[in-house]
Amino acid sequence: MRKLCFHWDGAEAFRKDEVAKKKLLKQWTHTAKAFGIFNLIVIGDRDAIPIIGDIEVSIEYFDKYSDVRDIYPDEKYVVLTEKGKREVEFPEDCIFVVGSNYADPQENKGDILVGIKSGIPLWDVVAAGIILHKAQ
What we know:
By secondary structure, the protein is an alpha/beta fold. The protein has a single domain, classed as Alpha/beta knot, CATH 3.40.1280.10. The chain is built from four helices and six strands; from the N terminus they run E-H-H-E-E-H-E-E-E-H. Helix 2 runs parallel beside helix 4. It is globular.
């Protein structure tokens, strides 16, 4: 089974508007579902993340990325990073990980590092969509 792990965007605009928060989460759920992923791992303040009624998707919440690694120590991790390779062998079962819009993702020994050639840094959900498409 494949999962997608991402950081909840804590930007000021999203803290004030419930509709904006729901739309942001829908971007993630729809991007994941478009490429056959129905299990999301969200890192961030659970109280700040909206609840949506998408019964096709399961969502797990974690305060920090190290908690994900503790719960899933034996999983293969595909980490999106600028120094990653553009062509990699994607495992059938893995957790795709993107960093936040404001920081690179944490890399650990044994991670599969994958990158995207782009002229400027990409928003995390856009980068995830590109890699999930490549992994099909």
